[in-house]
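I had to read the description of the data format several times before I understood it. In essence, backbone conformation is discretised, so a fold becomes a row of integers matching the chain in length. I therefore recommend that a typical entry be quoted early in the introduction. For illustration, here is how one protein appears when written out as sequence plus structure tokens.

***
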Amino acid sequence: MIRVLASIACAALLGAAAPPPAQGLEGNWRNTKNSIHLKVQACGPALCGTVTWAADKQREKARKGSGRDLLGAQLLTGLKRARDGSWQGKVFLPAANVHGTATVRQVNDSTIEVSGCTLMGLLCKTQHWHRF
């Protein structure tokens, strides 16, 4: 009986010592289709998002567009906090081999909204990414 109580007490203490859920923009994210995984982390004075995993179809599209593999590509660069709480920087679209402006808004602890625009804001797209 004492061993059971000791085991329960240890488990409770270990659970209490676990870190709180990740918050903020830094961390691992996946797009809604779960075809690309991105790690957002500090890159000098800003944040960047680097592809850590991609489905074969996405990798092939990137190779056709940019001539490079999608794995290791920085899709988001130079992200800095704006006055309105969003993050502003640059986005790379490897399938089209195009760079544009990026705005990232954190919807909640588990969702971000990434908007990218090219051609001086004429072509824009927004995606939701989910923490994993």
